[in-house]
Specification:
136 residues, alpha/beta, 5-stranded parallel beta sheet, 7 helices
């Protein structure tokens, strides 16, 4: 059985989602299976109508221009482009919390890259059984 990384995401800021995508890239490079579970703010960030307009960095806003330039010169793509490529390269599954979808009055079809809808029990079980479990 392959090693597995589980990431539970309850943050929707681009800087934290980029960090999450970088961690996923490391796991894919190590041939790990990755399951990403989106909770409230994670679901919000993956909404089709939010992805393109949600570009504001939350940490150290005064450094945002410098960080954006640094990311560009480092060749890092936006988090959602990285995840799309990583899903094609390895085993990366993205799951949305059903309660969070209801909170946003959304469906799976309103989200990008999401494979299915799950409940809290599945998230806890997955984290319990994973080789690496992270909360972002």
């Amino acid at each position: 059985m392959a090693e597995r990384m589980v990431i539970i995401v309850n943050n929707g800021t681009p800087d934290r989602l980029l960090g999450m995508a970088v961690l996923v890239s490391g796991a894919v490079a190590l041939d790990m299976e990755v399951d990403i579970y989106l909770m409230l703010w994670g679901v919000y960030a993956f909404k089709k109508d939010v992805v393109e307009k949600n570009k504001e960095l939350i940490e150290h806003k005064d450094l945002a221009p410098q960080v954006e330039e640094g990311l560009k010169s480092a060749g890092l793509k936006p988090w959602y482009e990285m995840l799309k490529e990583l899903k094609e390269m390895g085993t990366v599954r993205i799951h949305a919390c059903g309660a969070a979808l209801k909170a946003w009055n959304a469906t799976k079809d309103d989200l990008i890259l999401v494979d299915d809808v799950v409940g809290a029990t599945e998230m806890v079980t997955a984290a319990k059984e994973a080789t690496v479990a992270l909360f972002i």
